[in-house]
Structures
1.
Amino acid sequence: MDTPEGSMVHGPKAMLQQLPSVDRLIRDPANAALLRAHGATFVTQAARALLQHTREALCAGEVPPPATDEAALSAALAARCQARLAPRLKTVLNLTGTVIHTNLGRAVLAPEVMLHVQATMTGSNNLEFDLASGRRGDRDSVVEDLLCEITGAQAATVVNNNAAAVLLTLAALAQGREAIVSRGEQVEIGGAFRMPDVMASAGAKMVEVGTTNRTHLTDYARAIGPETALLMKVHTSNYALQGFTASVSEAELAPLAHAHGLILATDLGSGSLVNMVDYGLPPEPTPQAMLAAGCDVVTFSGDKLLGGPQAGLIVGTREAITRIRQFPMKRALRVSKLPLAALEATLRLYLQPERLRRDLPTLRWLTRESADIRAMAEALCADFQEALAPHYTATVVALQSQIGSGSLPIDRLPSAGLALKPQGKQGQGRALAALAQALRALPQPVIGRVEDDRLLLDLRCLDDPAALRAQLPAVRAALLAQERAR
Ligand SMILES: *Cc1c(COP(=O)(O)O)cnc(C)c1O
């Protein structure tokens, strides 16, 4: 603490007078490198903000008083410049146990995919230019052949996301007319996407059939009338109906739809392009199976099980896709060149299925053996113990991962990880929140999940344990700092 005499000599007033001007601060030789790196505009703005902040703190009598000598101010200026330029979007370690986590950016792109993005985005490209004829081309052609080859579709198009794919499909094929959907498939997917609202936005009149738990073929047949344009199936990806239930499959609906000259569309959502069962995973309908069952249009996401960028993929018959592509709303929902490049490179991996388990991060993580995950947890546990002692303990635990993003809601994958538990009975909630916060504040934030008074780190999606281990000293420092602040 300052002595009374000390605070008279170095008191806020004297400190205020000692503050350099903006000009003097940026001319300080200590800041020459900063100026060279960022230019005068940026550094001057930061210096002005720093001095303003320091002045306000001194006037408010802040204790301890902010640094006012030029060496400390120069250091603060460099830190402020660095902080202002730090990206908001950064990579985090997803140890939540949910592999495709919507809040954490869903599917992680393969390194090879990013090389293609880098190579095609740092120059002009042939996005809408046909190199063979020299004429204007269509951006869909970047991926259409690939999608058709992989799914067996006659034609394909791509939009911004699957919500857009469903909206556009309904608008293009059923606007001003009726679309029939089962009451068991009136789903809401992540707040803003509710099937009845999407139908309304598309200008289609929704005709509901069946009941919440049971819908039969005759329900659809009875609802078909002169205004009907389309039968809509929705994959109930984020909830499961169990018990006394019945729904009508696409294969059963297709003959009914086609006998009446109607379109059969199905919204798959996650839409894996491989048979998940071949990888020891729970079954999930594929676009290829839906097309084989007779669907005219199938929509699915690019960044769920497919493991690519955000995109909405629409595959189907040439006639239906042409109508969708020519509908004016398509222009507003079209995909940009950046995700399109990522999608192309991701789809190319599917031409070489043997590579997928190794090279597609989503599939690699989903198929990881729990014994391997446990071995990683065991190798890390002692280091965690040491970093967190004495206020927390770390133990290796068996966990259940989720696929996530609404796919396969009831299925769990056996996994393993670390359980971090506060010592002592008192203030456990606060101690857990403090630990979770320290992990989130790391240079590469670590995101776990809180369950049963423990912070759980599921290591299924951890590729590089060394990167996690290297951050442990920073965790320890943060916990000590928190303790001192208390
Ligand atoms: C995820 C999902 C959507 C929305 O897809 P986005 O790509 O997030 O827009 C729509 N329908 C179903 C069935 C889904 O699972």
2.
Amino acid sequence: MAFTIKCVDCGHVTPYYPTSTNCPKCNSQWREALYDYETIANTLPGLLPGRSFDLWRYRELLPINHPNESLSLGEGGSPLLRAGNLGLLLGCPNIYIKDERQGPTASFKDRQAAITIAALKEAGITEMVAASTGNVAISYSAYASRAGVKLWAFVTSLVPSVKMREIALYGSQVIKITGSYDQCKQVAFEFARQRGLYQDMGARTITSIEAMKTIAFEIAEQMTAIQEERAGIPWITPDWYVQAISGGMGPLGIHKGFREMKEMGWIERIPAFAPIQAEGCAPMVTSWKKGLEKVESITSPQTLIETLATGDPGRSYEFLRRIVQDTKGVFESVTDEEAFRAMHVLAKMEGISSEPAAAVAFAGLFKLVRAGVIKTSDTVVVNCTGHTMPAEPFLLGDNWSRDVKFPGKEDTPQEGLLAALTQVAPQRFPKVAIVEDTAEARRLIRRILQSQGNFFILEANNGREGLELIQKELPDLIILDLMMPEIDGFAVLEALRSNPDTATIPVIVTTAKELTPSEKSRLSGQIQALMQKGDFLNDEFLDEVKSLIK
Ligand SMILES: *Cc1c(COP(=O)(O)O)cnc(C)c1O
Ligand SMILES: [Zn+2]
């Protein structure tokens, strides 16, 4: 496993040693690992089928001489999940989630910690310093415990206390800094310098960049397996890679992975990169939108999402900007509110509970699809970078639980239990009829309703059945598709309106296509709302349902 380190600024090449952080020739801290790509291009693909699906399957492309299995916690090899419901909601069917929550400490930082700690162990280093907004320190702390490395973890006081406790649980020293993340990094840097300790240098840490690039390798292998049921080269890549960023190390490393694969002829195309920031701390987005070559940093971030609170990304911006330009990608920001909403959507529609930082990427995806930047025909991989935290109180608001008192001794058991059950839910829920010929669309609408309240849901899969069902059940609301075989939505509507029993039941019409003016005039005055399919993420749909039922 021969590799060398090349200075990005002057091209000078040196061997790798973890504690030598600067180019001996020009003093730059921006350097990258180089491998014998020609040999690896020919040999590694043949070895892959016999290796387990974790990040060590690419060991020839990692800066470790002798992978030490006893340190491994099973890092890498996270699943690539198809997000079918999100796809339907957005009208963008090819959305995949790289589920990095499934790492050993539940964020993509596990890759970074696994490789970096392995390199330290190999070099005989037994003490290190890291500044963190939480997840890096958690990962390092876990791997440090296995490797017998002492970790000094510097975190800001805004890091959720559950995260701080986890760092401490693995046996590391937690140092809480009251100040911004950039100030916290300064304190850590000075501490490490005075004591001569190894310290994590964020995106300038060679092992971190090398670790992150394994995500690119996995995405290409997984996309190929999903789409072609084979694993032949060239591998398939998505049109977009979307990730929430703080300092930008993830996309820098992942881009290097795609670059290496392209150089070796394993892939034909590098995806467009879409790094997403939290609006209250979006120095890269702002600088990019202003067309700046150097970043305009932010001194006091205004976001609840502490994981993403890098106010001064330094030169990472210059490199990431070039990547975004070269891949025809885009920088985007989203508000905390949008991120929290995306958390709900992801949990309620895909069964994935992410931390707010990871949800920033999904909120970014929603925004870019709506703006037409990501086209509905594009294939998108979104990195779900981090874990479920205990749901924060502000995320759920009130009314998310029902408190039921178990019957006391004074009631007869039967009566008491019945009384208790009435507290669980009222006897009657509003009745909603979904008349829709596509099973997928029915399921989606049912799920949207289920996740937002209690409804008694009736379904019909064509116009004739729909009419019968409605006349028998007299629902409180009808959700009606227009394009159906035999009796279409227009005819259903006419029949309903001409029968006094059903004439006043509110109707929301859903449609997959733009209506013609004459179609629109047939509907006018007959329905309460018109919803475009693929735009169900719009709050309007639920607001409409709620207002029509109450
Ligand atoms: C670290 C982290 C990020 C940001 O990663 P960078 O690529 O370093 O900017 C995003 N989400 C989660 C959950 C993280 O832990
Ligand atoms: Zn140099």
